[in-house]
Design brief:
Layout (H helix, E strand, L loop, with lengths): L9 H20 L2 H23 L3 H6 L5 H25 L1
Helix pairs in contact: 1-2
C-alpha cells in the first residue's frame, strides 16, 4: 500500500472540486451572486476538513486517511482471527 505525503489534502481537494462544480451550476441557473456564495461556503468547508484532519483525534484520522493506533490494533486482531479461522477450517477439511 502506497501512501502519499499529502494524503490529508485528498478530501478537501475533492470538496473544493465538487463545490466549484455546484457553484458553477448555481451561477448558470440562479445568477453569479449565488455562485460566489456557494464557492465561499465550499472553501470554508474545505478549510474545516483540512483543519480537522490535522488533529490527532478519531475524526481527524478518518478525514486524513490515516489510521490511529486503535484502528491498527483492530486491523491486526481481525487479520489474526481470519488466519486462525482459515487454519482451523484447513485442519477440519483434512
Amino acid at each position: 500500500m502506497t501512501r502519499s505525503r499529502r494524503a490529508r489534502l485528498a478530501r478537501p481537494a475533492f470538496s473544493v472540486f465538487s463545490g466549484s462544480a455546484i457553484a458553477t451550476a448555481f451561477g448558470i441557473r440562479l445568477g453569479w451572486k449565488f455562485a460566489v456564495i456557494a464557492e465561499a461556503v465550499t472553501l470554508m468547508a474545505a478549510a474545516v476538513l483540512y483543519l480537522v484532519g490535522k488533529d490527532d483525534t478519531d475524526a481527524g484520522a478518518i478525514l486524513s486517511n490515516r489510521a490511529d493506533e486503535r484502528q491498527r490494533l483492530v486491523n491486526l486482531r481481525a487479520g489474526r482471527l481470519a488466519s486462525l479461522v482459515a487454519a482451523c477450517s484447513l485442519v477440519a477439511m483434512v
